[in-house]
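#struct-help
A.M.: can someone run this one for me? Single chain, 387 residues.
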Amino acid sequence: MKAPRRLRIALLGARGIPASYGGYETLLEELASRLVASGAFDVTVYGRSAEVQRGLVERGLPANTRTYRGVRLVVLPTIRTRHLDTPVHTLLSVLHALREDYDAALVVNHANALFVPLLKTSGIPVALHADGLEQQRGKWGLLGRTVYELSERLACSVADRLVTDAAVIRDHYLERYGVASQMLLYGIAEGAAVGRGILDRLGLEPRRYFLYVSRFEPENNPHRVAEAYRLVGGDLPLVMLGDAPHQAKFIAELKAGADPRIVFPGALYGEPYRELQSHALAYIQATEVGGTHPALVEAMGFGNCVVVNDTEENREVAGVVARYFRAAEPATLAARLEEILADPAAARADGARARAEAQARFSWDRVVAGYARLFQEMAGGFTDGPK
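D.P.: on it. Structure tokens below:
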């Protein structure tokens, strides 16, 4: 009997893989590679030239590599400004996809909703992944907030399926627009890293540093975390891992006024990131906008004591296993960190509870199985021959 042909899937709207930026990129890398490994899918990921090249080089691969972990890479240019970067690249990606023969597509970031109708002119069924409420981010001015607000409304009508990654986002679309979405969560890495290469390079000791991971943007509160750390005693370093395009002034001011115990290694991915997560004394999540934040899920999966800004979205992920603070009041974060310094054994016990919670709720196998079913349904099921 002839085996069913593999479904051809396109993933568009992010910066590309290998992941070298944020949560969408990590999602697409894990999703695409695992779908390909299942033997039932051929997957193409569209990416922006600078980010894809950086990710490849970081992993020791030639910058012109066009297949990664079995996934086809389509690398296209963009205009690297805050307002044009995403729409220009997504438009170019959609124009390229129109010439292909995909069975289904996933577009991430609801700001890309504008391009979904164009993509559908070729008959490709499209799912749109709506992340957090982007219009609430402090980096956007009136124009940016207006675009995201309109895109959110548009997302409800143009896509064949709407995907969310948190109940608070799912409920927002349902209550405000009466639109149901399919909620697909995030996964955790499998097993802690045993290496310590990045720790040696940064002069760190296992279980003797705090870790913060996020893009350095105002609504992620790196400046308030740095302010809080000035109130914390002792000599343990705080590793603030991250960067952000178009935030040079904010980042320069952050670093210029930082406590000397704070280490800024930039944005790290792959094994260095896993090593830092695996050996931290505790992890700090200070975000205040968005749905499920991948770094928080991963920190829990690595068995970290998680110290979390008290928002509805963060409580949805971390529940009762986190220690909470209020980002607008840096002294509350300082108090949580002082408690950990006073009783590190209790922090390790909290980390073990966090790992158990993450293992029970966040699984890449479960996430990818959900997307596989979604793509099957959108494409009308597997077929035995060409379309």
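A.M.: thanks! The two ends are 19 Å apart (CA to CA).
D.P.: also worth noting: The first strand starts at residue 7 and ends at 12.
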